[in-house]
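Re: the 397-residue chain
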Amino acid sequence: MKLKFIYTILIATTTSLSGIAQTIGIETATYINQFKNIAMQEQIRTGVPAAIKLGQAILESQTGKSRLATEANNHFGIKCKTEWRGPKIYHNDDANGECFRVYDNADASYIDHSNFLKTRTHYSFLFKLDIRDFTSWAFGLKQAGYATNPNYPAQLIKAINDYDLAQYTLIAIEQKKKGIDFIITPAPAQATDTPIKAAPVVQPAPTKELLPAPAQVMDTPIKAAPVLQPAPTKELSPAPTKEVAPAPAKEVAPTPTPAPTPATVSLLENTKVTINHTKAVLATKGSSLLAIANQQKISLSKLFEYNELAEMNILDQDRILFLEKKQKYGASEIHTTLGSETLYSIAQKEGIQLSSLLVLNPSIEKDSILPAGQKIKLRAEAAQKPSTKKSKKGKKK
């Protein structure tokens, strides 16, 4: 009965396949519809945002059509690394013939992606970010070295916006509040995924223990929770679904001393990025703006101008600083607010001039604090066609 109830909730709260397809194309719609539930389930279990997971999968797997996805069920381009003892496939990536993990099913790849991020200390700072702030997560993944493409954050943000993936993060947040877990995949699919997930949960030194107890984590949502804990059987019978999500997340988390979620993103200073075809640098609070301008070989006045900033000597907070003039229109048509955003913060996240945002959204005042879920126009209809041509022409591969 509970499974039927959960299924009903999913149908009622997510967009139908036909509705999605009308906007984004049948192939992408089919892919999202197939994997949205496992993405939301993994968010509840580990804290990896469903929007980020789906966006990365769409990019890395070419919507499930890449060689790694079709031949290895590897939807996130995760390489073997020293601890992997499962099947392998060799594929040309940053170097020729690199070793990649092979999974028996796609869900195993989705689960391993969560564990991969949760068990590596250089990704730990991501889990201190607001789970709804996919922009910060996108930049954070690049900073931590997930991808070598300098445009990876912009591509990931565009995919999330274009395919409206943020809704799945919000749905998963609401379901977790209600104590509902997404039990979608049947037990047989988890059996092969055992080497993928268990290491982080079993102990602090995941690399050596990756194979000893993998089956338990994959099966926790369904029936294997008792194997992981000394005496969880009594707790599992009353409410298995509620027990699953919290347990792995607490044990997997690699951060020894939890800290409160910061109000702003902790950026790696002077990391260069490209947002909406515009060069920028990530700068941390307390940095000298004059030093940044000198280092980036632009004048201080231009730095203020490009970022529409009031003059200051020391940076007041972590910021994205553009090194050239921002675009008049966004890479996507709409920005959906996450709450506590302003038109200025959106202009910086999207790489668009604040003056353009004010023209496109005349009913919104410059300094208004915007509620979550508000749609902000980033493009004018008449400007979409020529703008698209221009961006394609200037795109570098």
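The chain has a mean pLDDT of 74.
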